[in-house]
Amino acid sequence: MTADELKQKALMIFSRHGYEGASLSLIADEAGIKKQSIYSHFKSKDELFLKAAEEVFQNELNRALSNIKHGSESNLKETLYQFLADYMEKYEQNPETRFWLRISFFPPGHLYDSVMVQVYRHLDTLEEALTALFAQAEIRANPEQAAIAFLGVLDSVFVEMLYGGKERQIKRLDAAWNIFWNGIALEGLK
């Protein structure tokens, strides 16, 4: 088994059980190897967790930036709404997205600083990309403030993804989205 294959198996366990509930024995069982074999690739559970987290953060950021990049002024409303709705779908279907969101909000205490470096890098890069997107569009809001407000809408959807059910997610998304869009859109874009 390669280190990448082991990371993928560990990711499944971390996404289901969190850091605390994911023992190396459980990861080894999932991978079909002996626990000691993990140490030929990773020094510790912490290292395995952080390597998996690093990869997932990069994948999530690449996906988000790709979605933003393909947006344009002509379909800004659709692009932004789909960006939000896509996260809800990915959370339900993709263990990587569940893992990413879970550790972003609930990093293991002793790894907090290491995880938060990645969280803030992700948020800062996303804010820059959104600011650039809004700067190209005709909106009535300051592009930087619009980006920050959009991230606030995204955060509220994330909270419902973690704590509420699908119905609450949709309710939150619809209400926050409508207020956000009506706040930034020029009259002709509504």
Automatic annotation (TrEMBL):
<dbReference type="Pfam" id="PF00440">
    <property type="entry name" value="TetR_N"/>
</dbReference>
<dbReference type="InterPro" id="IPR009057">
    <property type="entry name" value="Homeodomain-like_sf"/>
</dbReference>
<dbReference type="InterPro" id="IPR036271">
    <property type="entry name" value="Tet_transcr_reg_TetR-rel_C_sf"/>
</dbReference>
<dbReference type="InterPro" id="IPR050109">
    <property type="entry name" value="HTH-type_TetR-like_transc_reg"/>
</dbReference>
<protein>
    <submittedName>
        <fullName>TetR/AcrR family transcriptional regulator</fullName>
    </submittedName>
</protein>
<keyword id="KW-0805">Transcription regulation</keyword>
<feature type="DNA-binding region" description="H-T-H motif">
    <location>
        <begin position="23"/>
        <end position="42"/>
    </location>
</feature>
<keyword id="KW-0804">Transcription</keyword>
<keyword id="KW-0238">DNA-binding</keyword>
<dbReference type="InterPro" id="IPR001647">
    <property type="entry name" value="HTH_TetR"/>
</dbReference>
<feature type="domain" description="HTH tetR-type">
    <location>
        <begin position="1"/>
        <end position="60"/>
    </location>
</feature>
